[in-house]
Design goal:
The chain is mainly alpha-helical. The protein is about 90% helix and about 0% strand. It has 2 helices and no strands. The radius of gyration is 16 Å and the shape is rod-shaped. The N and C termini lie far apart (about 45 Å).
């Protein structure tokens, strides 16, 4: 069971770390959609 708890903690940490990056990607995609359509 300890292994499963470690996985849960790792997933929460990854989500917490990627949240600002994900928001930056969304903001960039919204502000400059042409770059993604090429």
């Amino acid at each position: 069971m300890r292994g499963l708890q470690e996985v849960d903690i790792d997933e929460e940490y990854v989500v917490w770390r990627l949240k600002p990056i994900w928001h930056s990607i969304l903001e960039h995609e919204i502000s400059e959609p042409d770059d993604f359509l090429v």
